[in-house]
Design goal:
This protein has 730 residues and is α/β, with parallel strands linked by helices. The protein starts with a helix and ends with a strand. The longest helix has 33 residues. The N terminus and C terminus are likely disordered. The strands form four sheets. The protein has an eight-stranded parallel β-barrel, surrounded by four helices. Strands 2-1-3-5-4-6 form a six-stranded mixed sheet. Strand 11, helix 13 and strand 12 form a beta-alpha-beta unit. It folds into three domains: 128 residues, Chitobiase/beta-hexosaminidase domain 2-like (Chitobiase, domain 2); 325 residues, Glycosidases (TIM Barrel, Alpha-Beta Barrel), CATH 3.20.20.80; 178 residues, Alpha-glucuronidase, C-terminal domain (Alpha-d-glucuronidase, C-terminal Domain, Alpha-Beta Complex). The radius of gyration is 26 Å and the shape is globular. It contains 23 helices and 19 strands. The structure holds 4-O-methyl-beta-D-glucopyranuronic acid (GCW). The site of 4-O-methyl-beta-D-glucopyranuronic acid has 9 residues, from loops.
């Protein structure tokens, strides 16, 4: 475990112990605390506690008395088992197993039963796409209800069952559970940056959940992972790091992975693998007749990948395809052999095509550091239309690297003849790791609803990603997972809100992030309205809060590029990410005088971004270099805005802590203490962010803060003079 993580963990533990000692009498005095059984977060949102509302409990007990399933196979069996498990927990009664004609709840595929066919609207509902579902609730005798969960496919039925379970967890009246849903995009994919060693790149919740060395034995953690992913509509999971280890596609490893693929398949999830583009070269080194190249034009390389694909698809149930990071950050790729990214991807696409496989090719390249943002577009825009139709280009939401705010990548609006995916990040690499609460769904919503051709000209990113799913599931949304083998899965409990919201937003890209936060809070902490309101308010404002104390006006990347992207260090990214001087700050990315990035957008957006007068303030310093006294729309100067927001951000982090403390007794003691410790640590670190950033800007600008007087702060081994020179002691 990285040294800082140990430090962080000690900080968290110390805070938890300190809090527990101080708060013990306080909690003990709260009678209701005695009723709340301690939890550790392992159950995530899949908690099925007895329904607390007496009337609803009575209605559920009267109606949800039996289940019938049409159709066989592991997916439908898992769907029924999960539904049974949920009803048992929520009602305290075990539903009987009866014939469909008598059952209170009937689940199955529309083609498997006349009963199901009769309960769906022939015209309206049969446009269900591959993984869609219908839930109908019909009045039965003596006020009971009969419920039908129907899909075209087993995966559709499974998604429908989890949707019904979610409605029951939220205490929805049975008369209001009817719905018809299709997923917005075809591929709803987790990317795990899990290494063969068991470590996780940019992971802050322990080591890999996949336990490579214990495979082929399947663990409870494997099963609970598959359940959790299926419950939020995830249908694809890349289990290893994009900085791929070729070992993952060796025959021996494939034999170990086979049961995991079968488990995923039984929960409607296709297993994918990241592959090392140089695998033919790496894996034949000790052969009698090694392949000395990875050139996609080489016949032996093509033959090797074709044979390897055949082996993989034959061994791994429901295998989806390969995720590829090539010619990026030192990874091998087709450019090493004078081939284009498209030529490199298409060779792999031909290898997997006979098996219905796909290739997801990442556009994250930044070998030209003059402007990281501009290089990706220049590399990929000319290749639009050159990729085979089972290749999907996966692009990070912004042109830099998962910052708390970036302009939406211009490639989405440009690659109109290429299947695309957007890559979002659930693990908080640049947004506070597993210490800072930073609910990212509001940002994801901004990205997905971004009109790509101009402020009022679509299609939006979501519409572009949805197009493919109409024809075939060859577009989608990927998220870099925040899961690790910590017992709470995400390293800090509120981090699971990002996991939950990601899956739900992939299914329905129009969902309001606040609604998702409320769903998650109620499923995770129960239906206490005070808890729901307080935690939803915290989550809903947490991204802006993190941005306020860490990143002025879209600048971002104030952490050490070669480090863990956690500690503030604005000096470390001078020139790479900002051009701060005594006169001003920002990065000129205009077409007229800067890197030209703003010119990569369609004209309607270029006209907005090109001028500081029309550029949105929240992206001002991403697109422009301006003088410290440049006036924002708020009337504030840039430098005063930087001072104000960094102090206000810390005040917000303090409010989170106090709001959480006020919930003592309404959340079980174990989770309350755990989350209290996280907020305590976050506040401490937010202060460090504030002091370093405002100290840095005072150092350069020498502009005095018009609103507050500062003082010298001694932080650990570092003394930062706020209002003076930032001095690093030897
Ligand atoms: O942000 C950078 C990260 C790398 C990551 C890379 C990528 C998996 O620092 O850890 O490598 O992006 O997205 O490929």
């Amino acid at each position: 475990m990285a040294q800082y993580q140990l430090g962080r963990r000690r900080l968290l533990q110390a805070s938890a112990l300190a809090f527990a000692a101080a708060a013990a009498p306080w909690i003990a005095s709260t009678a209701s605390a005695a009723r709340l059984v301690d939890e550790d977060g392992y159950d995530l949102w899949l908690r099925y506690p007895l329904v607390s509302d007496a009337d609803r409990l009575e209605q559920y007990r009267r109606s949800l008395t039996s289940i019938a399933r049409h159709g066989d196979g592991p997916v439908l069996a898992n769907a029924e088992a999960e539904l049974r498990r949920a009803i048992e927990g929520l009602t305290g009664h075990t539903p009987a197993d009866v014939r469909a004609s008598k059952a209170a709840i009937v689940v199955g595929r529309v083609q498997d039963s006349a009963v199901l066919r009769s309960s769906v609207d022939e015209d309206r509902d049969f446009r269900l796409r591959e993984q869609g579902f219908v839930i109908t609730s019909v009045g039965a005798r003596n006020g009971r209800r009969r419920i039908f969960v129907i899909g075209h496919t087993e995966r559709g039925v499974l998604s429908g069952v989890f949707h019904l379970i979610r409605l029951l967890q939220l205490h929805t009246p049975l008369s209001k559970v009817s719905t018809r849903q299709n997923p917005a995009v075809g591929l709803r994919m987790m990317n795990h940056w899990d290494n063969r060693s068991g470590s996780i790149e940019r992971g802050y919740a322990g080591t890999t959940i996949f336990g490579w060395d214990d495979l082929p034995v399947i663990s409870d953690r494997h099963v609970d992972y598959a359940r959790a992913m299926a419950s939020i509509g995830i249908n694809a999971s890349v289990i290893n790091n994009v900085n791929a280890d070729a070992d993952f596609i060796t025959s021996g490893m494939l034999d170990k992975l086979a049961p995991l693929a079968a488990l995923f398949h039984s929960w409607g999830i296709s297993l994918w693998l990241s592959v090392d583009y140089a695998s033919p070269l790496v894996l034949t080194t000790d052969d009698e007749d090694p392949i000395a190249t990875a050139d996609p034009a080489d016949p032996r390389v093509r033959q090797w990948w074709s044979a390897k694909a055949g082996e993989i698809f034959s061994k791994l149930d429901g295998f989806g395809g390969f995720l590829v990071k090539a010619n990026s950050e030192g990874r091998p790729g087709p450019l090493d052999y004078g081939r284009t990214h498209a030529e490199g991807a298409n060779m792999l696409a031909k290898a997997v095509r006979p098996h219905g496989g796909k290739i997801v090719w990442r556009s994250f390249v930044h070998e030209d550091f003059s402007d990281w943002a501009e290089y990706q577009y220049r590399t990929f825009a000319p290749l639009d239309g050159d990729f085979d139709d089972n290749v999907i280009l996966q692009t990070k939401y912004g042109p830099i690297d998962f910052q708390v705010r970036e302009p939406v990548h211009p490639l989405f609006g440009r690659m109109r003849r290429t299947h695309q995916m957007v890559e979002l990040q659930l693990t908080q690499e640049y947004t506070g790791h597993a210490m800072h609460t930073c609910y990212l769904a509001p940002m994801w919503r901004e990205v997905l609803s971004f009109p790509t051709q101009g402020p009022v000209s679509g299609p939006t990113v979501a519409e572009i990603l949805a197009e493919g799913s109409l024809r075939k599931p060859c577009t989608g949304i990927a998220g870099v997972s925040n899961f690790g083998n910590d017992h709470d899965w995400t390293g800090y409990q509120l981090g699971a809100a990002n996991t939950y919201a990601f899956g739900r937003m992939c299914w329905d890209t129009d969902t309001d992030p606040r609604d998702l936060a409320e769903e998650w809070v109620r499923m995770t902490f129960g239906t206490d309205a005070k808890v729901t309101r307080a935690v939803v308010d915290i989550l809903a404002s947490s991204r802006e809060t993190y941005e306020a104390y860490s990143s002025p006006l879209g600048l971002g990347y104030f952490t050490n590029p070669g480090g863990d992207h956690f500690e503030p260090n604005p000096r470390a990214t001078l020139f790479q990410s900002h051009h701060t001087t005594a006169e001003g700050t920002g990065f000129d990315r205009t077409a007229a005088t800067g890197s030209g990035f703003a010119g990569q957008y369609p004209k309607a957006w270029q006209d907005v971004y090109e001028s500081p007068d029309t550029c949105p303030d929240e992206l001002l310093l991403f697109m422009h270099w301006v003088r410290y006294d440049h006036r924002l729309r708020s009337g504030s100067t840039v430098i005063q805005h930087i001072y104000d927001t960094h102090f206000q951000g810390v005040e917000e982090a303090h409010r989170f802590l106090l709001a959480w403390r006020a919930l003592a007794g309404r959340v079980d003691g174990q989770r309350h203490a755990d989350i209290e410790a996280a907020f305590t640590a976050q506040l401490e670190h937010a202060r460090l962010w504030r002091d370093v950033v405002v100290g840095f800007y005072f150092d350069y600008s020498r502009r005095v803060d018009e609103r507050r007087s500062w003082f010298q702060v001694a932080l650990g081994g570092r003394r930062v003079l706020l209002g003076g020179r930032a001095n690093l002691l030897p």
